[in-house]
Q: What sequence folds into this?
């Protein structure tokens, strides 16, 4: 008979949870929710940073592509084209540029850093241009090229930003 009383008493206690068990369960649930929130916040922040980086890379690629096309379709030495005026801080020339209508038009272009911008790049602190005289292993770069009838073989552009300097090399298409 004593075994029956003990099993009945044990059964009465095992039907519910104690206050400590409930508090531990609530605390663990709260920790799981807090950790899940931090994980999802990190994923959203990472996605936003990835989008910003992708936009920046697209902007850089488009700026380089535009400069490559400009220097590649340079028009110097033809009637009405004007000359090539290259200085250390700016360059001016005539080129064939694609317009919104889809065809090419001759336009005079001036490239220089203005107000912290150079083309599509922002946060630019300075731009320097150098001009290649002739191709070859011992070829010389000069700081200025001013000619009404010819252009250099290539143009080297150093874009200075807050912490970096990008050096870009553009081969000139038609040299006049």
A:
């Amino acid at each position: 008979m004593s075994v029956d009383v003990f099993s009945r008493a044990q059964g009465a206690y095992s039907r519910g949870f104690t206050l400590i068990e409930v508090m531990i369960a609530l605390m663990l649930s709260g920790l799981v929710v807090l950790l899940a929130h931090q994980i999802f916040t990190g994923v959203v922040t990472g996605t936003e940073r990835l989008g910003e980086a992708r936009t920046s890379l697209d902007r850089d690629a488009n700026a380089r592509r535009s400069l490559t096309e400009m220097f590649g379709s340079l028009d110097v030495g033809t009637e009405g084209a004007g000359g090539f005026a290259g200085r250390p801080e700016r360059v001016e020339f005539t080129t064939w540029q694609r317009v919104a209508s889809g065809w090419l038009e001759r336009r005079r272009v001036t490239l220089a850093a203005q107000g912290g911008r150079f083309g599509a790049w922002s946060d630019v602190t300075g731009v320097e241009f150098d001009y290649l005289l002739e191709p070859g292993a011992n070829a010389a770069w000069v700081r200025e090229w001013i000619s009404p009838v010819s252009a250099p073989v290539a143009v080297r552009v150093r874009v200075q930003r807050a912490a970096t300097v990008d050096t870009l090399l553009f081969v000139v298409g038609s040299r006049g």
Remarks:
- The helical segments are 2-13, 19-72.
- Residues 1-176 form one domain.
- The longest strand covers residues 90-98.
